[in-house]
Here is the input.
Amino acid sequence: MAPNLPNLKPGDVVAGRFRIVEIIGSGGFSVVYRAHQEDMNRFVALKVLKPTASHDAKIVERFRREAYFASYLSHANTITLYDYGHTDTGLCYIAMEYLVGNDLSVVVQRHEPMDLKRVWKILVQSCRSLAEAHRLGLVHRDLKPENIFLTQREEQEYVKVLDFGVSKAITNIGDAGPNTMRPLTQEGTVFGTPLYMAPEQAMAEEITPAVDVYALGHIAFEMITGHAAYERCTNAMDVMLRQINDPPLALPDPWSGSPFSELITQCTQKDPNYRIPSASVLLDNLMAPEFDAYADPMEKPSRPRTQALQAVAVDPADLLDDKEVEELYRWELDTLEATFKECQSTNQPRLVVIRGVPGSGRSNLLRAFLRRSRGADNTLVLHRGPSAEASETSLETELSVLTGKALQGSGIVEVKRLLMELYGEDQELAFSADQIQRDSRPLQALSSMRDSLLARISGPFRALAKRRTLVWGLENLERLDTLTLAFLDRFFRDLQADPKPVMLVVTVDPDELGQRTGLARYTESLLQAGRPFARQMHLVTEDEDEEVLATQRMQAIPEFVQRDGSYVGAGLSDSEADDEPLTQRIELDETPQDSSSAFDTILGYLAQLGDEVPLDLWKLVYARILSTDLIRVADMVIHQAEKFGILHVHDEVIRFSKPGFAETLRQGFEAIEGVKAAHLKLAELMQQFYNQPSLTQVKLIASHYRRGGKSAQALNILMDQGEMAFQRLDLDSAREFYLSVQKIVESDAPPPSGWGLEEAQIWLRLGEVHGALREHGAAEDALNKAMRTLRLDDRETEGKANKLLGDLAVYQERYTNALKFFDKARDAYRVMGSNRPFVAITNEMGRVALLQGRTGLAEDLSRQALEMAQRLQEPLLLARVNRQLGGVLTRRGRFSEAREHLKHALSIFESRARDSDTVECLIELGQAEFADASYADAQDHFRRAIGLAASHHHNSLHDANLGLAWAYAAQGHVAEATEHLEQVLSRVRANQDRQRITEVLLHLGDARFAAGNLADARVSYNGTLELAEAIGLRRIWVAAMVRLAYLHLEEGEEPQVFKALGKALSRCEELGYTEGQLQVKSHVIYIQLLLYGFPPSGETFSGLLQKEEDSPRVASLTYLFRADVAAARGEYANALSFLRYAHVSAAQVGDYTMFIPIARRLNLVKDAMAQPVDPLTNGWGLGAMVPPEVGRRRFDRLPKAG
Here is the structure.
């Protein structure tokens, strides 16, 4: 290991989930690895602090901030952060999206001017990323070519903005409060890179989003000219002085006449007050008509039509032929139709994503296609339109169509009840927060219940698709609720794994979608999906008439000021901008109120309702809130604002063309007279108007109550909505509501009267939701804040927080820490006298001890829990404790006892329809029966687990499938095992699950090896090697290489045997994989002895055992080999002892397939000693450390003793 690098090698696992594959980069403070995330089946870039940096508190804090800030950014042009945290050894890590490509510095270092179309595209995408950050109150501060990464998407260059490590929060974002946002450095400290540093940044003055605009101006200059503006300066101080004193940049010839020159000048103004203020405003400028010659049509939003085409309904009575639509979208409709025919002919799913802004015609295209599809044979069309009520834009609409049941628009609770009827279940699917909090594994329970709900919702869709083709159209993906988005992501992935003829067609505005924080986890797979399953369609309108173009050129939105105080808008020439303010050019009727004030006030009221406002809501504001003076001019203001491109009115909706202008109006609204009363009236009116408000609408209503002086009302609304979202398992929405509550509580300290919840309890809830969403770093931060803010006598919150921290530690394989947290939680519950959580946590401590390999302690803790649970007589708690104890006893080799406890647990789980618990208990019972040589019983329980897990898409399906293959092979039914594994392989390949493909390939190779099909076995093992190396599965890689050595042995290729083993040994030494080295050495010694007929003396297994006393896996293997040597020499008593030791060691690590070769040898030795034997085991142990024994290794009998 090189100095000052983390002690990580390929195959090492960080935080229990990230398996290291290779180093891909190294910087001053950190190393970046390519790693494979086991639980999500994806490659990630794992950024790890170097050891020396880990001891510097400021560097660690900056590293944490990069993760913290990036976790709130979800735009597609920003690198996605998956998780962050630290290990027990102090290793700090950030798991991010793994990108392939180069950063912009690689391009600009060639010192060649770049094509202006490429420059425009890179600037636009960079602005989109930064606009989200600026909207959240976050400034990058270190924007430079190295932090603009160029990758590929859909065969097009695509920008990802990187490294928010030195970012500055200019407002509290997310759940960040005053403590979180405390200054990282001393006042006056400068952060950034001199070549791209704004003057105010160099002088350590106030930081605003304009510093990022300044950096983009310099980056644009460098891209266009091929040289950085001040690259000839010899030191950083000279560069900074020039940044402060030189005039703004202007492009030299031949680019001086291009619109980029003026834009760069505006970006690099020295005074931030006269600079383009933010990335969103810069983006508006790049979209102006003067840049049309350089614009990529795929990047530039289509201009809205003067009149929207007639909406096409899906009801048969309304599906009239629309020749205009058919003619306009002839090519797109043909593409959609061809995709539909593919779906029908192949019985495979298809997804088409239609990208475009509202008004681009995307909805008309979708509706025209649905009209065509309705006439197709054996096809059902479902459609979600944009103008339905909230209750009609959920999954209920589609489910009611599929089932013929009318739902009453009462949310996901009705969906649950419907599903209960469909599946013939008696129990309620709803749950209570208290039930989850008391559960022995609350985070696992939440994740499991949510996964189960999503799987159940897919049932009616999948059932229908067995009989006919389903076409499902969804408009406005950017506005769908998070639970529906989560379902679509899950449904599409499931369809690829288990294909059905379902065609999903969605419309989306990617920019608007990107403004919704935290949704990338669900939408990324849809928006990046490619062939053969998906098509991405960019809707661009190029042939607008001149009248529309003229209207667009007149768009005049004041966004920033020049030195003379005049306004400059994105679509105005200098002469127009200097002439007079926009509001003075609009002709209003004479009123007692100043026309400019009326214009701002009326549009300010409109902006208070959101960026997109239902026309009916505006009519209510018009009638109930506006003063008489404002009512007189309101229609004229709206008309003029639409004429000048500020507003766009269509489909019964008023939409601000530029959200940045709407935000400016909202800020200016605070200056009107009686603003508090206005906010309260708006809050009450919006609350009445929206029966089922969206997350955005709820937050807006709460904001009005807060600004109206009723913070307690705002908090209660947000908390109620958060609890409702939590109850319906919409965890993403719940998180956003809780974050909003936390922000208000911290900002308005002390809490307002009428608000009863304490800060620690909010942090606790946030930690729970973050953890259930697998955001472990954010969860741990929230729970630690809960611990810091709780009252000393609040034992309940203390117990819950420590329990959840323990759960997180278990997920990250930090078992020592987990036991400490659980012990603290037990103490809190002991003081409270809360017996049930005390018992549940004691049981969990037993599970952690088992994971540590401390089976004795695990049994002690589980028996303590069982004794207390029997006194409490709570069935589910008793079932969980019995199941845990059964697992412990299996590992301790007491299989009959284990089976009894597991059967008792299973009967309770089944009687209460606890599907997830039932699946896991069935698998564990099957394993105990397999270990007890009751292979037929094991086969039955594995089959039952497969049936239940498949119907509910349970994560344990894979374990059940492998268990069934074990049971087949153990009984000698190799053909059945092979056929089953081939079916499993096709499913996991369809799902592109690398780890499971690797495991199945190894087992399939063993089944083929056992059947004597050596050629096919070799193919399976080589495939295993390739995949295992790609994702860092070193244990499986070693197992496959060892098996290839035994294949050579069966084929009589002795030199190749030792060549393969030598390669395995070298690889283990290179990786520092000690256990693997000892296993390979055991095989080397064994094969050497085997080739020489087990000579009467000499073997070195004892030395290997002494080297690795803490490895039961190595011990099991070497004891087995020693037993073979002893048996060959007629030392049967020694052989029996070695086999018993091998059995105990294999049980310790749960390697039950090793019991098969052990059992065969036990029977052979007992038979030779004339002792009673169990029925002879003639099968094979698939996946065991010993490859299937065939040919010269397949001992059928031994000489009789004496």
